[in-house]
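TEACHING EXERCISE
Course module: macromolecular assemblies
Task: Read the component lines below, then compare them to the predicted structure of the full complex.
Student: A.B.
Group: 4
Components provided:
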Amino acid sequence: MNALEVRGLAFAYPDGLQALFGVNLTISRGERVALLGPNGAGKTTLALHLNGVLPAGAGSVHVGVLELNRANLKEIRRRVAIVFQDPDDQLFMPTVREDVAFGPANLGIRGAELDARIHDALAAVGMTEHAHRPPHHLSYGQRRRVAVATVLAMEPEILVMDEPTSNLDPAAKRELADILQSLDLTMLMVTHDMPYALELCERAVVMNRGTITADGPTHQILADEPLMRANRLELPYGFDPSFSR
Amino acid sequence: MVLTPREAFWAYGLYAAIIVALTLGARVPLLTLIRRLAVEAPFLIFVVGLPFLARGERIDVVGLSLSVEGLWGAWNIFVKATLGAATMMLLASTTPITSILQGFQKLRVPSVIVAIAGFMIRYMDVIASEMRRMKVGRQSRGYEPRVLWQARALASSAGTLFIRSYERGERVHLAMMSRGYAGAMPELDVVEASAEDWFTAFLIPAVAAMTCAAAWL
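Instructor-supplied answer key:
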């Protein structure tokens, strides 16, 4: 069963910059996929198409059996959750609790059901006791975790994350990894962090200049030196991708 | 309070007494409140000028010729501004900002206004720290503006800051749409106020309103 199917997706920004040149990508239910590639490859642009925030110039996006179009935009946005790179962009309400409530409340959920959603989402990321604090009083790692909670509260099927480890210290990265491992969700993770991709994702997709240039098991992709070099990708010094498998 | 005739000194005394009593009751140190009132100072400079600048009948006070009308005007502005500011400080130092926003919502302030106020409070820190980083960036490259005509770089920084804030606004909007935002903020956690709450909330304004009415009689 496919969770996500992208076919021939092309997109140009209003200023004329062509960011995607016919992207094809299929992700099965329950898969965790890393999306690798240099800056400007179109990774974030692709992510923003998956819930219809950016309108495709050509091609199609299917979430499950549902085709993304104007009529089911709301349902697609419930099913495909995006965690943005900067938690300050994602957390815009006065308190953590209100921020987590924002998504489900837009779906029309109120009362006890809403409270349960908020509680479950905050518990999943270990932030229950911070519910009434304003987001700007939290540490960066905590804000990232709350950002994940804000989309978990919508009970999505697919979790799309844009550089989830950026600006996190090693301990916060570890805590986030544990949380992500505990979630039973299909995941697409845009990242420059190769060890993180190897640890969390069995499959990796490489993007360069607006197209997908490689797709395979993460440890194979990372070990393929010519492929990595051709796509401006590098492993951290001393890191051996064959180590963990 | 604003409507109270300026000649009714006793009414202002009563207002001040109410504020002091509330401050003590709320266990806010009086000194803290007075110190915070310093924000009012720049506005009072104008008031100091009034007795000298206003026209009309003049009166000699310790050798200075002052306008009677100006003195009254200055007193009027001074006392109303100070008492008003003290009331706001008292509210701000006893009530969390989120409760104040919820209160606005409860009082049927348009939700767009409440949302804008909420965003402003949420992003004040973010923008201030962005400003700090830009300042550090300027200083790291040896820029230490002291004289006014060196303000050029400051002006261009302000432009950059505006662009950055604008772009952040766009990203926030994308994040909002991603979570199903369709043009209206959802009403959340509206705390139900009991009749008793309403009574307590209206008690002080009612006393103040009665004072004002009595001052006119």
